[in-house]
Write a structure and sequence with these properties.
By secondary structure, this protein is of the alpha+beta class. The protein has a domain of 119 residues: Gcn5-related N-acetyltransferase (GNAT) (Aminopeptidase, 3-Layer(aba) Sandwich), CATH 3.40.630. 24% of the residues lie in helices and 31% in strands. The chain contains five helices and eight strands, in the order ββαααβββαβαββ. An eight-stranded mixed sheet has the order 1-2-3-4-5-6-8-7, with helices on one face. The relative contact order is 0.17. The model has no long low-confidence stretch (mean pLDDT 95).
Amino acid sequence: MIQEPIVVQPALAAERFGLRPLRRSDAGLIAMYTADRRLAEGTRTIPHPLPPGATEAFIARSLAEKRSEDVWVMDGSDRGHAEVLGLVSLTPIERDQSEIKYWVAPAFWNTGYASEAVAAIVAANPHKSRTLFAEVFQDNPGSARVLTNTGFDYLGDAEAYSVARGATVPTWTYLRKMV
């Protein structure tokens, strides 16, 4: 019998879904969504095409006791939606700062799910961060709206490497001071 590791990470509530830690059983839906080129190219780290075992390795890293980020699944199953709508994560940086990242499955784009998930993370502030940072590719204004809708302020332009694109891409960087 394979037992799921115990992840000490709070479950959080949004209006239309819950945010819960990853489970190994999420691998199928996550792999299906992240295999979509449009989704992969909107991130820094998801490769396209998605190699075999990449999703399982990501989940294993996310469930590890000494993980580098906390990952939550946007789970709508309690409200009649899909079990996996997308993911949102927090990575501690330094000095009480964290970086927030998120993606929503293409079938659920333009539904407000990303804004809801980010707002829930901001409200809960599970890392007790003084400042949250985020970065979006400049060709993804929808993701930038998610951040401005949830109280993030524009900080400046930068660049980040996208594995799926195999290129450095211009970004907008945002921050949110926490009270």
